[in-house]
Design a protein that fits this description.
single chain; alpha/beta; Double Stranded RNA Binding Domain; 45% helix; 22% strand
Length: 471
């Protein structure tokens, strides 16, 4: 049985069509969802002369553990090197060389003549092949191209090192039978395709993209490009379900986890939908973005988890159940549960782990005439480790001392202190949220000393990060 790879192109289509404006955090969340459900590859936008683009790709690369990260390059060495440098942190990277190959697009988009385009595409593929074994050539508008010319460019890029060639039906004007015949004619004209993977991309102008994709698979294609949110191309959930239901008759299967599809697609839709909440456009902390959330005892687990996800957390089923159980206990005694309470519930109920770091002691010096100094002593797996740091206040210096002990800097996404009892000896609770590899980790600390509660909250979040890194 043939393996069919499904490549998600949601983020690339969103950027190309300008139909959606996804924030940085939304892109990271979508990547985590797609990587979890088993898509073969996740395609992202390339670099357009921007350090921000490079940082975006590096951040995404650190999250992709199961899928292949596919990134397009321009047909020049500088672009190829820049993309590779940003993406190489992923477990598996595919560099994509694209070219508009139809006569109507070649001169106006590529600004090249037919023979020059073949030479430049082959040179770009060869450069990519020096960096990675996984190189894809994407023939844009292939269905409106002469098959003989298409076969020439395929021959050139395959010889240069392309392991995947994708043909795109940008017009979306073919019926399934016509598209299947196009694939069959292409195999006959370019027999080199039998030794590599043939990918297909179909537009949905006639509402037949999914059917054309299945017809293409039946004709021999082994990669299908699709989106996890409706964007006028092949729908990921539809094609994955068809491949799962008709695996025997098609003699082909994908490895997308169809049992998790509905939930995953709902999560992506919440991140992508046109009427997104202010959280989608918010540039501050995640918890501030959902400050207006109000939950009650009548809300079910799915509803609660929607808001937990919007707070920035990605919980296992076990942690989700623990958080919902804790939520029910709180909601039974409160008329309403807001974002602050929900954040504290997650911090206290989810991902409780054996401590890698424990607080041994601390000394804080601060005053009006000099900068705050913090001396922190931690035990890491029984070994005493210490650091001293200066900071803008006792809490800032304490966090810097902890970072010195750990040897890493983590982005502080949120920090809150609140009293949980009344009176002069009030107990203070601190919640610290750190970002590591694009994921939010929340820690909680309680003490009559707000500095100590803050230190304990930071260490609590740090232990969760250390546990996941070790496991």
């Amino acid at each position: 049985m043939r393996d069919i790879r499904v490549s998600d192109i949601t983020m690339r289509e969103a950027a190309a069509s300008k139909a959606l404006s996804l924030s940085f955090k939304e892109k990271l969340e979508i990547v985590k969802i797609l990587d979890r459900i088993g898509v073969g590859s996740i395609e992202v936008e390339g670099i357009e002369s921007s350090k921000v683009d490079s940082l975006r790709i590096k951040s995404i690369a650190s999250l992709v553990k199961n899928s292949t990260l596919a990134v397009p390059v321009k047909m020049d060495d500088e672009s190829i090197e820049a993309v590779w440098s940003a993406a190489k942190g992923a477990k598996s990277v595919r560099l994509q060389v694209e070219a508009a190959v139809s006569p109507s697009c070649m001169e106006y988009i590529q600004r090249r003549k037919a023979d020059a385009l073949i030479a430049d595409a082959a040179a770009a593929v060869a450069k990519c092949a020096e960096l990675t074994d996984d190189v894809e050539f994407v023939a844009i508008d292939a269905t409106r191209t002469d098959v003989v010319y298409l076969a020439k460019i395929i021959d050139a890029v395959v010889k240069a090192g392309a392991k995947t060639v994708t043909v795109c039906d940008a017009a979306g004007s073919m019926l399934p039978e016509e598209f299947a015949q196009f694939i069959a004619d292409l195999y006959e004209a370019a027999p080199q395709l039998k030794d590599i993977d043939l990918g297909i991309s179909c537009c949905n102008n006639l509402n037949m993209a999914d059917a054309c994709a299945v017809a293409g698979v039946m004709a021999g294609a082994s990669l299908v490009k699709a989106t996890s949110y409706p964007m006028g191309v092949v729908a990921l959930d539809n094609v994955a379900r068809i491949l799962a239901a008709k695996a025997d008759s098609l003699g082909a299967q994908s490895h997308v986890r169809v049992t998790e599809l509905k939930r995953a697609m709902n999560q992506v839709a919440r991140l992508c939908c046109d009427e997104r909440s202010k959280a989608a456009q918010f540039t501050g902390t995640v918890s501030e973005a959902v400050e207006g959330v109000v939950l009650t005892a009548s809300d079910d687990q799915d509803t609660v988890m929607q808001y937990v996800e919007r707070l920035g957390y990605s919980l296992s089923d076990e942690d989700a159940a623990a958080v919902f159980e804790a939520f029910k206990k709180i909601a039974a005694n409160k008329e309403r549960v807001g974002a602050t309470e929900l954040d504290a519930i997650v911090a206290s109920a989810a991902l409780q782990v054996p401590p890698t770091y424990t607080l041994e002691g601390y000394v804080i010096n601060s005053g009006l005439s000099f900068k705050a100094t913090s001396h922190i002593s931690l035990r890491k797996n029984g070994e005493l480790v210490e650091a001293v740091s200066l900071g803008d206040g006792p809490i800032d210096s304490s966090f810097k001392s902890i970072e010195s002990v750990v040897g890493k800097h983590y982005e502080l996404d949120d920090f809150r202190i609140q009293a949980v009892t009344e009176g002069r000896e009030a107990v203070g609770e601190s919640v610290v949220k750190l970002i590591a590899d694009g994921k939010v980790y929340s820690g909680r600390g309680i003490s009559t000393d707000i500095v100590e509660s803050s230190i304990r909250a930071y260490i609590n979040a740090l232990n969760k990060i250390a546990y996941e890194e070790q496991n």
